[in-house]
Amino acid sequence: MPKPLKIFLIALTSLVLLVAILIGGIFIFVNPNDYKDEITTAVHDATGRDLTIAGDIKLSIFPWLGLTLGATQLSNAKGFGNAPFASVDAVDIKVKLLPLLHKRIEMQKILLHGLHANLAKDKTGHSNWDDLTTSKAKPVAKPIAPTTPATPSAPVPDNTTDNTMGALGALAIDGLELKNARLTWEDQQSGQHIVVENLNLSTGPLALPAPVDVSLSLDLQMQKPDIQSHINFSGQVVMDPNKQQYQANKLRLTVKASGKGLPISPVDVSLRANVHADIAQQQANITQLQLDTLDMTVNGQASIVNLDKNPAVSGHVSLADFSPRNVVSQLGIKLPAMADKNALGKANLETDFNASLNGANLKNLSIVLDDTRLSGTAIVANFTSPRIEFRLAANDMDLDRYLPPPAEKTTPSKPATSTTSGAATSNTPVPLAPLRRLDLDGSMSLGKLKVIGARLSNLQVTVKAKGGQIRLQPIQASLYDGHFDGDIGLNVITDTPRTSINEKLSTVNIGPLLKDVMGDELVSGKANVSAQLSTTGMDIDTIKRTLNGKANFNFRDGKVKGVNIGQMLREANAKIKNKPAPPKTENVTDFAEMSGSVTIQNGIVRNDDLDAKSPLLRIQGKGKADLPNELINYRVNTAIVESNEGQTGKELEDLKSLIIPIKVSGNLTDPRYSLDLKPVLEARAKKAVEAEKKKIKKRAEKKLEQKKKDVVEDLKKKLKLKF
User: Fold this and answer.
1) With a cut of 50, which residues of the chain have pLDDT below it?
2) Measured between alpha carbons, how far is residue 442 from residues 396, 435, 438 in Å?
3) Over the range 43-74, which residues count as b (16 or more CB within 10 Å of their CB) and which as e?
4) What's the rounded Cα separation, in Å, for the pair 195 and 223?
5) By CB distance 3.0 to 4.6 Å, which of 29, 90, 298, 649 could disulfide with 113?
6) Are 361 and 350 in contact (CB under 8 A)?
């Protein structure tokens, strides 16, 4: 070993031993508790606060330079009550002595037990720590400027960051232990009161940038809002200040909360994730994210860029199978009765996303609700005033599962009104403000749809909404061997919404449609129907009263169920002839073609040009239906035509050319049919009189002819005798 180096090491060792002996002497011969008064006086002079050291002060030296402090408290600021600002039961800090000589700080676990801190803000907005952060140093007089210009000095490089990072890198702590701490926050301006108690924090060794295990638990109580919760946190933290990189691995957070300030109470939340942040690159990654709450599990991952300004996030998120019905129940919301008690039993969601502070874009969106699978894309632009665009497609949807159960069928004993109708109506006000704010542009396709019993396929709907104007156009679908085209508009600008409907049915097999929708094939045949309607209001009663518009219809090769006009005529004819009633047949009226038009004014539906034809009959009708009161007053005029129906036609042979009226009245859901025989009898009597007149005339003419012949013969005889 070179001699100079050997001399240096001997001198350095001697110096260290000398320092150790001196410090040891201080510890042996000086009792730090003798200086409590000086310490408290110094604190009071510096802060104006009273420091009370009730416990002993203990110092240690080799190999650890340490301080152990017993029960200690610091008084509160003036005007904030008698409770201490902060107190602690025990503090233990120890630093290894020899590494200090190499500019390294090695510390044992820092222990802080029984810390209590009372933080507050008064009604004027001042806090009880303002006086501790305000400098009390006297201002230093500025030196007199020199008379000659000073030579500009070279700029001093700012090495604060590097020095700080280097100091942190040389810091090694065996861990932190904060035990049984309690913090309170009282805000007299807002009335908010927060208490954190049973606060326990424990870490593994702190030697940056090595990983550090961290665990934290606390109880939290709040007022305004009223919330109580227990929080647990654990994870492994990795910090590299030199590279400005930070990680939280195996992060786990659990929260059990309750209270009136929560929309759901009680509620449990569990969060797991790994987080990596690179401040230098202004980006972060979240992986293996799992959030559990309300029987729902959300998994995902995300990347964030531009952390300091205009952050943008992209990633993938999925919501595992859950029961919406159970979730709604936990939210305290009572669902209305549904036709299918198992509806809303299963759902899940999965999507890729891009989002910023201004909007979000969902791609590869997949949603499952019960048996419906929906996929597509959605965009939300401008969160402050959202504009939503979507393109969605679904395989099969049964909306009837979610509608109220069908009402029990009853036979009305009197004409129904809006309050006596067996059909359930809802007069619950519809909130219009959200509809007015809608800015929407979307389309949806459905392979199959079932709604109010009707079964549609290949449904295509485009919807647009802006400024209180909502429009579904075009609406196209295949149904019952035919086609539907629709255009529906809703205007909610005013407090009385207005709805317009323009729709068309082409070659639809109307019988099965009515069977599915109304439970009975009231009319069958191939139907072509067009309608242009308008109404105001959102409840059923108002819609009926304000319905206006027109419609045209044409049916071919069908039947009208509930009335057999031919049977009615045969029975009437038998009654007139005083013969036995004919045998009953099916209660339907066949027609080859039926057409007409309808006008609607304030819920009163009028038809004056019904025209129906069959091999046996010609039918014309006119009358009206009162939708608000569900009443009908209609008259059908029937005429018998030539028929090839054998005996059936022959039975009505003598009624040919007679106009036979049938009256339809009563309730729309259960109309009454009656045959007006008076005109029939009058017409029959008139026909009989005319026939008798013809017979008399014929007999008279015959007698007159015979008389003429007799006169001629008589004249011939007389003339013969004369000549």
Assistant:
1) 1-23, 26, 136-169, 410-426, 644, 646-648, 723
2) 19, 15, 12
3) beeebebebebeeebeeeeeeebbebbeebbb
4) 9
5) 90
6) no
Rounded to whole angstroms, how far apart are CA atoms 713 and 708? 9
Distance CA 74, CA 617 (A): 107
Q: Which residues contact 357 (CB under 8 A, 6 or more apart)?
A: 310, 311, 383
Verdict on whether the full-model pTM lies above 0.85: no
pLDDT on residue 256: 95
Tell me how far apart the alpha carbons of residues 529 and 594 are, in angstroms, rounded to a whole number.
Answer: 12
Element (H, E) at 516: helix 510-518
Structural element, H or E, at residue 479: strand 469-479
Token code pair at residue 677: 């025989």
pLDDT at site 289: 96
Q: Is 109 left (phi over 0), alpha (psi -120 to 50) or beta?
A: beta
Structure tokens at 531: 């309608």
For residue 243, which of 286, 282, 280 has the smallest C-alpha distance?
Answer: 280
pLDDT at 638: 83
Could you give the C-alpha distances from 174 to 167, 177, 211, 413, in angstroms and in order? 16, 10, 12, 89
411: Cβ contacts below 8 Å, ≥ 6 apart: 670
* 3-state DSSP assignment of residue 39: helix
d(CA 397, CA 425): 24
Cβ atoms of residues 541 and 425 within 8 Å? yes
How far is residue 251's CA from residue 216's CA, in Å, rounded to a whole number?
Answer: 11
Six token digits for residue 499: 């709805």
Give the bridge partners for 229, in sequence order. Answer: 220, 257
Supply the pLDDT for residue 444. Answer: 95
Structure confidence at residue 215 (pLDDT): 95
- What pLDDT does residue 59 have? 72
Compute the distance between CA of residue 506 and CA of residue 486 in angstroms, rounded to an integer.
11
Res 653: pLDDT: 62
Distances in Å between the Cα of 450 and the Cα atoms of 345, 425, 506 are 18, 21, 19
Burial 128-158 (b: 16+ CB within 10 A, else e): bbeeeeeeeeeeeeeeeeeeeeeeeeeeeee
Quote the pLDDT of residue 2: 45
